[in-house]
Automatic annotation (TrEMBL):
Dihydroxy-acid/6-phosphogluconate dehydratase C-terminal domain span: 362-555
Pfam families membership: ILV_EDD_C, ILVD_EDD_N
PROSITE patterns: ILVD_EDD_1
Protein family: Belongs to the IlvD/Edd family.
Name of this protein: Dihydroxy-acid dehydratase
Domain Dihydroxy-acid/6-phosphogluconate dehydratase N-terminal: 39-349
UniProt-listed InterPro entries: Dihydro-acid_dehy_C, DiOHA_6PGluconate_deHydtase_CS, ILV_EDD_C, ILV_EDD_N, IlvD/EDD_N, Sugar_Degrad_Dehydratases
Source organism: Paractinoplanes durhamensis
UniProt keyword annotations, A-Z: 2Fe-2S, Amino-acid biosynthesis, Branched-chain amino acid biosynthesis, Iron, Iron-sulfur, Lyase, Metal-binding
Superkingdom of the organism of origin: Bacteria
UniProt keyword Iron, yes or no: yes
Length: 560
């Protein structure tokens, strides 16, 4: 076994012999002897943090991975990385994905390791680590902490966070009282693990399997299951083999692997955030994915997985039904067989070996009897967003798919918070809610695109309206919500020029979203336009605002 080990990437003291000598002295201080130093070094990126509550059980998973590494003859070296807690970080986790990607890439690149295990799970951690590994291009294998189990309230199963949103809407509409919503609150996240609907975390876990960057079944095994620990051990063992074989992400993450991922994304009706993340990861490898590529995949592939928010169940159910291997088997005619997976076999060889469990087709439907028809995700074009926008049609209301209404414009999140529930604003159910200055360059693209229904309309029973923004929406959310509009208002997109009362027309079937205001009038408004927000003046936020690209390019920094 010759993998370089701790002699890789010597620290620069100008004398290689001395560098090695010094390094060995300090490794000896950590208890490593000559036998240890002869083994492949497996770095383990540890994203545990008290703030990232869904990573609560990561220490146990880390131990399992370490055991696997040791069993296979490697030396496990965990290193802590930045963690990004989806719910506890202000203003939005997305502002930090690229920072974490840079940080992890530099740790992988600067420190001696022959392969790396990427432990993650929460929404931004998995894409950040994949972006890092794609750029560093050393042997890498991903492992998520796995989804939570579901909770229970008065006999009803609950889970984070599609049910969080639905029940909060009920509370705002007066259907639930203070005590009831407080009871609900303790049942939404009942165990360790990531949000167990098909939100971004679950989506990325599933997508990892389709990409071939994690072991089979590792996308869906519950966080609290013993299988999760066994996957940890197996991942550790495999990481040593990857180090020896020198199998790199660039050999796994090919255009065809991304095409398989787009097919899987459509079949799970995955989070719209995955579009941005996959685009960013692919671009790190020089592969260009467009919203029209995602649209095309979605037109070919119906929704097969019955998970919220598009369906009715949860990730642990999907796992019992065979998880991603069962789904990929159903999708077999649509998949490329040639991509190599991190476990060793090609996708084709894996497919040949899989037999989904009996009865799985209730949860994971066959291609011929889908949960929802193809077209779950639609790319929109037109005058409001010249570079496109998207809508998750599978989570939208059928009666709003073709709609024309008057714009009610909010300039910022503060403006929204201030005026949204004020009946004096006089919003009507047929109006189109427009929220701008929440794009990547403005404030890092928060998940505020699913604009709440004004309280006074919610109380009248209005549950959905057409909502438009340059931001994102949580993968756990639903509604007729148009997202990722490019170019965003903050970089001068037409969205910046919309005024109250302008007519906006949506036609999902025709893939059109039009701002029905004449070119001359828009030019007049453009001449008068004053940007409402001052860009950040220092630190990461300044670098981010200056160099972030639009959503359609993955919202990565332009120099990465
Ligand atoms: Fe981490 Fe939902 S908060 S996955
Ligand atoms: Mg999320």
């Amino acid at each position: 076994m010759s993998t370089g080990g701790f002699d890789r990437k010597l620290t620069s003291y100008g004398d290689a012999g001395f560098s090695k000598f010094l390094r060995r002295a300090f490794l000896a201080s950590a208890g490593l002897d000559a036998v240890d130093l002869s083994k492949p070094v497996i770095g383990i990126a540890n994203t545990a943090s008290d703030y990232t509550t869904c990573h609560r059980d990561m220490p146990a998973l880390l131990d399992a991975v370490k055991r696997g590494v040791l069993e296979a003859g490697g030396i496990p070296f965990q290193f802590t990385t930045m963690s990004i807690p989806e719910i506890l970080v202000n203003p939005t986790s997305m502002l930090f994905r690229n920072l974490m990607a840079m940080e992890v890439e530099e740790q992988i690149t600067a420190q001696p390791m022959d392969a790396v295990v990427l432990l993650g799970g929460c929404d931004k951690t998995v894409p950040a680590e994949l972006m890092a590994a794609a750029s560093a291009d050393i042997p890498a294998i991903s492992l998520v902490v796995g989804p939570m189990m579901t909770g229970n309230w008065r006999g009803e199963r609950l889970g984070a966070c599609t049910d969080c949103r639905r029940l909060w809407t009920d509370y705002r509409g007066g259907v639930l009282d203070e005590d009831e919503i407080a009871e609900v609150n303790t049942e939404l996240c009942p165990t360790a693990g990531t949000c167990m609907v098909m939100g971004t975390a679950s989506t990325m876990g599933c997508v990892l399997e389709a990409l071939g960057m994690t072991l089979p079944r590792a996308g869906t095994a519950p966080a609290v299951s013993s299988e999760r620990l066994r996957l940890g051990v197996a991942t550790g063992r495999r990481a040593v083999e990857l180090a020896v074989a020198d199998l790199r992400p660039s050999e796994i993450l090919t255009r065809e692997a991304f095409e398989n991922a787009m097919v899987a994304l459509a079949a799970i009706s995955g989070s719209t955030n995955a579009i941005i993340h996959l685009t960013a990861i692919a671009r790190r490898l020089g592969i260009e994915l467009t919203i029209d590529d995602f649209h095309a995949a979605s037109q070919r592939v119906p929704v097969l997985v019955d998970a919220k928010p598009a369906g009715s169940r949860y990730l642990p159910d999907m796992h019992i039904a065979g998880g991603m291997p069962a789904l990929l088997k159903e999708l077999e005619p649509l998949l490329h067989r040639s991509p190599v997976t991190v476990g060793g076999p090609t996708m084709g060889e894996l497919l040949d070996g899989w037999a989904p469990p009996a009865g799985h087709q209730d949860m994971i439907r066959p291609l011929g009897e889908p949960l929802k028809p193809a077209g779950a995700l639609v790319a929109l074009h037109g005058s409001l967003f010249p570079d496109g926008a998207i809508i998750k049609a599978a989570a939208a209301s059928p009666h709003l798919m073709s709609h024309r209404g008057k714009a009610v414009v909010f300039d910022s999140l503060d403006d929204l918070a201030e005026r949204m529930d004020d009946p004096a604003v006089g919003i009507e159910p047929d109006d189109v809610l427009v929220l701008r200055n929440i794009g990547p360059a403005a404030i890092g693209m928060p998940e505020a695109g699913a604009i709440p229904i004004p309280r006074y309309l919610a109380e009248q029973g209005v549950r959905d309206m057409v909502r438009i923004s340059d931001g994102r929406m949580s993968g756990t959310a639903y509604g007729t919500v148009i997202l990722h509009g490019s170019p965003e208002a903050a970089v001068g997109g037409p969205l910046a020029l919309v005024r109250d009362g302008d007519i906006i027309e949506l036609d999902v079937k025709a893939q059109r979203l039009e701002l029905l205001v004449g070119e001359e009038e828009l030019e007049r408004r453009r001449a008068e336009y004053v940007p409402p927000v001052r860009p950040p003046q220092r630190g990461w936020r300044r670098l981010y605002a200056e160099r972030v690209q639009q959503a359609r390019l993955g919202a990565d920094l332009d120099f990465l």
